[in-house]
Structures are given as C-alpha cells and as structure tokens.
Specification:
With 80 residues, the protein is mainly beta. The protein has one domain: ATP Synthase, domain 1, CATH 2.60.15. Helix content is 0%, strand content 71%. Strand 1 and strand 2 form a beta hairpin.
C-alpha cells in the first residue's frame, strides 16, 4: 500500500507500508492491503506503520485519514 503522512509544515513519510495502525476518533484501527475505502477523524495518539519489515511510529495531535485504492493519506498535527 502507498502511505503518505502529511503535516501542515512538511511531508513526514511517503512510501510503501504493509499495515498502518491509527488512533481513530472512535478507537484505534488497523488498515491492511485491499482495505475498504474510508475517511476517519483521528484522535491524539500514535500512528504505527510497518514498512520493509521495520516498524515506525509518529505521534499525532489529531487529524484525518483517507483510505482509497490501496493508498492511505494521513493529514496530522504532529508533535515532531
């Protein structure tokens, strides 16, 4: 899947991901390949993603995510 994590200041990550765990406004959820399309608000929390067998994470203060056609676009206010 293609993953893009964006903040107002810059692109924080762009690349392939095997799975992405997100702090949804109604609870944490994981996006896997071929996931159904969705748009969700994000609560403050940790975004964790697995890319090339390496787990990475970013802290977010909120935002939203769109999943469509194996592309995940995350727009966040970041702590970084």
């Amino acid at each position: 899947m293609k993953l893009e994590i964006l903040s107002p200041e810059k692109t924080l990550f762009t690349g392939e991901a095997d799975s992405v765990q997100l702090p949804g406004a109604m609870g944490s959820f994981t996006v896997w390949p071929h996931h159904a399309p969705l748009i969700s608000a994000l609560a403050p929390g940790e975004i964790r993603f697995r890319s090339a067998s390496k787990e990475q994470s970013l802290r977010a203060q909120g935002g939203f995510v769109e999943v469509k056609d194996d592309t995940i676009t995350v727009c966040i206010e970041s702590d970084n």
